[in-house]
Design brief:
mainly alpha; elongated
Length: about 300
């Protein structure tokens, strides 16, 4: 049985209908095939993107594309709308993929991008822009490698750190990166959204239940308002502690998400209780026993 043939549809290049399977890795290695160029078995219309083809691209690159698939789909629509060119899209895409762990060490980062490889067909101005973009991308990769190597050396030189452990060195490094516009991966809003998606219901139910338990004390001690303030302070503290943690440890970013959602839930319950009855609260308004309890507390405080 002969070698299986595939069709290739390059987004910015020619279309081929009879490419042997053994040639696909060579096309990737030489920079002729982009991660999003399409591939289909010969004689079919079963197209898939290059990164979806099993074993063609490195696992970290494939994982990064899966993580950012929705964001990249929105970015690609900007090409059709004429807002950005394919070259600009690929520059932005590659920067986004490099934020994921492990991608910067893949051979993918050192291969020439197909549109840059075909730069001979471009004008001098386009070639200059391509060279500048490629140099900037390589510098960004080198900087990320330097940071990772610095973290590894610091870890090997000192005591082993555990998850959740913080340090002044990490805090200074993260602050410096943020001031230079190099945002850590945990700053991505998807970190908070991921925590809400998996634990949001539990966070809301717990905060709302605690707010209702404190409702009888709100007219006397402002208990709910103190809890809202406590959640806000905890959220700020979580961000500061996350900045003092390593990039791979997102424990405090997850706790920030919990505190933020808890503060929102507390505020909503508190507002509802005050709207029903500011003097007695929600439970005191409907349950005479709680109203009597509140009266005794006021008398004890006044006495």
């Amino acid at each position: 049985m002969g070698e299986r043939l595939y069709r290739i549809w390059c987004e910015d290049g020619p279309r081929h209908d009879a490419v042997p399977e053994s040639r696909l890795p060579l096309l990737v290695a030489s920079g002729h095939l982009d991660v999003e160029d399409r591939i289909a078995p010969g004689g079919t219309e079963d197209w898939c993107e290059g990164w979806e083809f099993d074993g063609l691209f490195e696992p970290p690159v494939v994982r990064a594309l899966r993580v950012h698939h929705t964001s990249l789909a929105r970015m690609r629509r900007s090409i059709k709308g004429g807002w950005i060119s394919l070259m600009e899209y690929r520059e932005q895409r590659d920067r986004l993929l490099l934020t994921e762990s492990g991608v910067e060490f893949c051979a993918w980062t050192s291969r020439p991008r197909p549109d840059l490889k075909r730069a001979g067909a471009q004008s001098e101005l386009q070639k200059a822009a391509s060279e500048g973009a490629e140099a900037e991308r390589q510098a960004d990769v080198a900087k990320r490698r330097h940071v990772v190597h610095g973290e590894t050396a610091a870890t090997n030189a000192g005591p082993q750190t555990t998850q959740g452990e913080t340090s002044i060195l990490s805090f200074r490094r993260n602050v410096g990166r943020i001031l230079h516009g190099d945002l850590p991966a945990w700053v991505d809003p998807s970190t908070v959204l991921h925590a809400w998606r998996h634990h949001g219901v539990r966070y809301v139910i717990t905060a709302a239940a605690l707010a209702l338990l404190l409702d009888p004390l709100e007219p006397v001690f402002l208990a709910q308002r103190w809890m809202v303030a406590l959640m806000g302070v905890s959220a700020i503290a979580s961000i500061l502690l996350q900045m003092a943690s390593s990039d791979r440890d997102r424990t405090w970013a997850t706790r920030f998400a919990a505190c933020l959602l808890g503060m929102i839930a507390f505020t909503i319950v508190m507002v509802i209780c005050m709207e029903v009855d500011m003097q007695r609260g929600l439970l005191g308004h409907f349950i005479p026993t709680i109203e009597q309890f509140q009266g005794k507390l006021r008398a004890a405080i006044g006495g």
